[in-house]
């Protein structure tokens, strides 16, 4: 059996693992990365990137459809609108291909050795990989587990046939006429909205009383309104019970405890993701857990010396940029640098229509933590740029300590607000006070002016409302 001995072994080449390996390679650490599927992980292959490509295509199509129907508010007319889903999917696959081959190139450039196959632990420092050319043993001083996550299924609705996860939804050959989405969280609403814009009749079934339960009602309201405009039916406090006998419909227990039957060509189950901790011998290592996730400390160390864990396998928030930040930090720790997790916030974006972006604490969270706060909220309906783009729904909100004006959180809902996430995170990381934001010149006309206005409003002297 072939054997490789290295300083650092990274298992999984998703955003966590590949960033860790690249940084380690740059720092001169002799690094091997093992990937059983394609480099780029969930994010590049079946997650962030393909979903955003589909969301963009669907929005472009929806705009053209409105024009073709003579409903363009800005006076543009076109004769006809059609979408060729196979071509759209081909375009999306092209982007995925470019990015995943880019990851391989970056790994090679950083002198990281890539081994293709599934890594199975033999002991804490040794894995065996079944490669195309035979079994390979890899021994390392340090191991980073970056095995990611996979979709959760429901006992009453196992994946297969009409019941699909986000992975299949991102590569459908035909547009489902009737799509039922079970789970009104990130994936269900991002993809449900995209399919509705492409022409599917969409129903969302959410178990809790509110869709996107991680966000406060003010942020969710514009999204809910748009779902209604798109004809998406939303059933909250509803439970999916299982398929009808012929498999053509989903039985649902609605909020009033009445059973409803929802006809469906496809049922997209998006009720969360679970850490990938089986199939790689991890069970044998008996690492400490935090619920189903691997327990880590502020340096991403697990309970076993020399074994680190990063990304989705370590729990919420399961976001690509968190995984990447952990990966970069762990590489530097392995290189001997003094690092620990010291981030003030992990911004989050939900790519619904309109988009939601959050960084730090919401007003409710700040109060729950005992802060006395000032809140400033500025609507896009008073922002010139938003009006010129014919999308003036939503607002920017800033939350600050009442005693010092230190910014505790920033949130926004509106078209394109994902791009405000960096400004929000900068303000948080640099310990901005309301006066810092209010005193910064924000270019005109841009949506970002709403951030300055929200800060001014919290200080009691907004200019444009
Ligand atoms: P993963 O990306 O899951 O990568 C883990 C890798 O490890 C995989 O390639 C897997 O094949 C490999 N692996 C597992 N076990 C082994 C083994 N034993 N041997 C070898 N290889 C192994 N996040 C955002 O921040 N923004 C978004 O817009 C966003 N959109 C999303 C949309 C969808 C539809 C989905 C499903 C997810 C989305 N996410 C988004 C979440 C994001 O994809 C994850 O947070 C991110 O991919 C986690 O990175 P990771 O490196 O921890 O794991
Ligand atoms: P989620 O946690 O965002 O949403 C799951 C939803 O399903 C929740 O609203 C929950 O109440 C509901 N639910 C749970 N069980 C149910 C049941 N039996 N019937 C009906 N509803 C039920 O999970 P997700 O949408 O699957 O996404 C998984 C993870 O992927 C997210 O937590 C997020 O970290 C990541 N993600 C991020 C983005 C982004 O950053 N834009 C996009 C997609 C996914």
Automatic annotation (TrEMBL):
Pfam family, one: Pyr_redox_2
Pyridine nucleotide-disulphide oxidoreductase dimerisation domain residues: 346-455
Active site: 444 (proton acceptor)
Binding site for FAD: 52, 147-149, 312, 318-321
An example Gene Ontology molecular-function term: dihydrolipoyl dehydrogenase (NADH) activity
SUPFAM superfamilies (alphabetical): FAD/NAD(P)-binding domain, FAD/NAD-linked reductases, dimerisation (C-terminal) domain
Cofactor: FAD
Paired cysteines (S-S): 43-48
UniProt keyword list: Disulfide bond, FAD, Flavoprotein, NAD, Nucleotide-binding, Oxidoreductase, Plasmid, Redox-active center
InterPro entries: Class-I_Pyr_Nuc-Dis_Oxidored, FAD/NAD-bd_sf, FAD/NAD-binding_dom, FAD/NAD-linked_Rdtase_dimer_sf, Lipoamide_DH, Pyr_nuc-diS_OxRdtase, Pyr_nucl-diS_OxRdtase_dimer, Pyr_OxRdtase_I_AS
Cofactor binding annotation: Binds 1 FAD per subunit.
Enzyme class: oxidoreductase
Listed EC numbers: 1.8.1.4
Domain FAD/NAD(P)-binding: 7-327
Any single GO BP term: 2-oxoglutarate metabolic process
Catalytic activity: N(6)-[(R)-dihydrolipoyl]-L-lysyl-[protein] + NAD(+) = N(6)-[(R)-lipoyl]-L-lysyl-[protein] + NADH + H(+)
PROSITE patterns recorded: PYRIDINE_REDOX_1 (PS00076)
Family: Belongs to the class-I pyridine nucleotide-disulfide oxidoreductase family.
Note: The active site is a redox-active disulfide bond.
Protein name: Dihydrolipoyl dehydrogenase
Organism (species): Rhizobium gallicum bv. gallicum R602sp
Lineage: Bacteria, Pseudomonadati, Pseudomonadota, Alphaproteobacteria, Hyphomicrobiales
């Amino acid at each position: 059996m072939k054997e490789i001995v290295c300083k650092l072994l990274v298992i999984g080449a998703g955003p966590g693992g590949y960033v860790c390996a690249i940084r380690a390679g740059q720092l001169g650490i002799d690094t091997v990365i093992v990937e059983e599927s394609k480099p780029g992980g969930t994010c590049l292959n079946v997650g962030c990137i393909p979903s955003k490509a589909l969301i963009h295509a669907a929005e472009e199509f929806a705009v053209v459809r409105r024009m073709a129907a003579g409903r363009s508010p800005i006076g543009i007319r076109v004769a006809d609108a059609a979408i060729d889903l196979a071509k759209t999917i081909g375009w999306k696959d092209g982007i995925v291909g470019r990015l995943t081959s880019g990851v391989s190139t970056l790994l090679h450039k950083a002198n990281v050795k890539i081994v293709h196959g599934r890594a199975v632990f033999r002991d804490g420092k040794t894995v065996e990989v079944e490669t195309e050319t035979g079994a390979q043993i890899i021994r390392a001083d340090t191991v980073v587990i970056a095995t990611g996550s996979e979709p959760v299924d429901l006992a009453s609705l196992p994946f297969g046939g009409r019941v699909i996860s986000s992975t299949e939804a991102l590569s459908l050959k035909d547009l489902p006429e009737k799509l039922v989405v079970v789970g009104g969280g990130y994936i269900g609403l991002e993809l449900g909205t995209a399919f509705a814009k492409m022409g599917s009749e969409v129903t969302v079934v959410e178990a809790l009383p509110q869709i996107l339960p991680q966000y406060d009602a003010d942020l969710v309201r514009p999204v809910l309104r748009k779902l209604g405009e798109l004809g998406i039916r939303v059933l909250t406090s509803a439970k999916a019970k299982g398929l009808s006998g012929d498999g053509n419909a989903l039985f649902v227990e609605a909020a009033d405890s009445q059973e409803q039957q929802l006809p469906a060509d496809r049922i997209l189950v998006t009720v969360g993701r679970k850490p990938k901790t089986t199939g790689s011998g991890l069970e044998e290592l008996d690492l400490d857990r935090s619920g189903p996730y691997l327990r880590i400390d502020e340096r991403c160390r697990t309970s076993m010396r020399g074994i680190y864990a990063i990304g989705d396998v370590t729990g919420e928030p399961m976001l690509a940029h968190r995984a990447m930040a952990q990966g970069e930090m762990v590489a530097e720790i392995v290189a001997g640098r003094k690092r620990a997790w010291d981030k003030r916030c992990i911004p989050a974006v939900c790519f619904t229509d309109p988009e939601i972006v959050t960084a730090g604490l919401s007003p409710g969270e700040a109060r729950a933590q005992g802060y006395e706060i000032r809140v400033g909220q500025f609507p896009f309906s008073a922002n010139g740029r938003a009006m010129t783009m014919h999308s003036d729904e939503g607002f920017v909100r800033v939350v600050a300590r009442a005693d010092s004006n230190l910014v505790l959180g920033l949130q926004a809902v509106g078209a394109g607000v994902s791009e405000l996430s960096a400004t929000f995170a900068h303000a948080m990381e640099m310990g901005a006070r309301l006066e810092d934001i209010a005193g910064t010149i924000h270019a005109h006309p841009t949506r970002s002016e709403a951030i300055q206005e929200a800060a001014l409003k919290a200080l009691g002297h907004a200019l444009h409302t």
